[in-house]
Design a protein that fits this description.
The chain is mainly α. Helix content is 59%, strand content 5%. The protein has eleven helices and seven strands. Strands 1-2-3-4-5-6-7 form a seven-stranded parallel beta sheet. It starts with a helix and ends in a 23-residue tail after the last helix.
Length: 403
């Protein structure tokens, strides 16, 4: 009786100690998961970096980056789980060969504890990610509201620049063609445009957007790209970015958004009279090769700095993607013999059968090779109605835009 009376309190004490130990292990696993999330978040925020539009703009990109960070974190969790299961199976196999009966049970208990720790760690990290995503989305909403409120009535601000034409952006049924060209728009103004595109549902139906002749450069173009990455301009078909100071960096950001599925219905892109070189065109080519701009028919690149490497990359991407490009304007660039030769090979090889109009004048490539390229395109278009030989392009757009 005495032994029984002693045993029961001891058992209770042991149970309490085990419960405290389990609780401590759970807290350690959860803390580890939260630390893991915090480290990954810091890395994500470093990749977001500091934007030319200011620190408050960073949340626009943070919200875009967080889903990718979460996906990477969950893939890491899955890899750890698979590694844990493999290690356990290998250990059991080794113990089975040894003929020791008790060790497999100990291994199972240890594996169960490790699995539980991994589950708690992952759950804590997931909860932390979800909380941060919700907080970031709320910060973005507040940032957008504050930006648009500050812009109201600002002397020399966006609304003053665009005048009555800009008021259509806030109409319940905005026009299908939004023309904001030659308004003196700065990168800050493009932030306003991008915010309106992201936040006003009626603007989801815009079919054409003209921003020509505004010097917002790469910083403004990146705001437009981010808006597309957020899902804006999903119905856009024509985009005019001629003479906006766009360089390789801005085009690369736009290409990255397109590669992510932004603006999938575009069939006309005007990038003329900018500072685009091979790097920017190569980024655009990579996006096209990956499936971006599946409906592209007309691409204006004249009066830039595109060389042979850029044109060759573009041609290769067009061939690989099956894009149905019909008009390509590369007048007045820096394309040499290698670039034009790549184009001729693609056309003569039957890889660009949809191409019907080619503009290549004003490049340093040999005149006879340029002539051969134009004739190759004319030859495969022979079944169409007779066409006048393309003339060098000097205007901003092929024809006045039609609503």
């Amino acid at each position: 009786a005495l032994r029984g009376g002693v045993r029961e309190p001891l058992q209770a004490l042991v149970a309490q100690a085990e419960a405290r130990l389990a609780s401590a292990e759970e807290r350690r696993a959860e803390a580890r998961g939260r630390r893991e999330m915090a480290a990954a978040l810091q890395q994500t925020l470093r990749t977001v970096g500091s934007h030319a539009l200011g620190e408050e703009y960073n949340v626009v990109r943070e919200v875009l980056a967080l889903p990718r960070a979460v996906a990477a974190a969950r893939e890491g969790q899955a890899r750890r789980q698979r590694a844990l299961e493999r290690a356990h199976a290998e250990q059991l196999g080794a113990l089975g060969e040894s003929g020791v009966a008790v060790r497999p049970r100990e291994a199972e208990d240890r594996h169960a504890a490790e699995r539980r720790e991994e589950v708690l760690r992952s759950a804590a990290a997931d909860a932390a990610w979800e909380a941060h995503i919700a907080a970031a989305a709320d910060r973005l909403r507040r940032r957008d509201v504050d930006l648009l409120q500050r812009e109201e009535g600002r002397a020399g601000g966006f609304w003053e620049k665009v005048g009555q034409g800009g008021q259509a952006l806030r109409a319940s049924a905005p026009p299908a063609f939004v023309d904001l060209s030659r308004k003196g728009l700065t990168p800050r103004d493009l932030d306003v445009v991008a915010t309106l595109l992201r936040t006003l549902p009626p603007l989801a139906d815009v079919r054409a957007l003209a921003l020509s002749g505004n010097g917002f450069a790469d910083a403004g173009a990146s705001a437009l790209a981010d808006a597309g990455a957020h899902g804006a301009l999903a119905a856009l078909e024509r985009l005019f970015l001629d003479n906006v100071g766009l360089a390789d960096g801005g085009l690369a950001e736009l290409a990255a958004a397109l590669a992510g599925g932004a603006m999938p219905r575009i069939h006309f892109v005007d990038l003329t009279r900018n500072g685009i070189g091979d790097g920017g065109v190569a980024a655009l080519a990579d996006a096209i090769r990956g499936g971006a701009l599946p409906q592209l028919q007309t691409l204006y690149l004249y009066n830039n700095r595109v060389g042979s490497a850029g044109l060759a990359a573009l041609v290769d991407a067009l061939c690989a993607s099956g894009c149905r490009l019909e008009k390509l304007y590369v007048d007045n660039n820096q394309v040499g013999e290698a670039g034009v030769a790549a184009l001729v090979r693609a056309v003569e090889g039957g890889h660009l059968r949809s191409l019907r109009s080619l503009h290549l004048s004003g490049n340093p490539a040999p005149a006879d090779l340029v002539q051969a390229a134009v004739q190759a395109v004319e030859g495969q278009a022979a079944g169409d109605a007779p066409r006048k030989r393309p003339a060098p392009q000097t205007r901003d757009i092929e024809a006045p835009p039609v609503d």
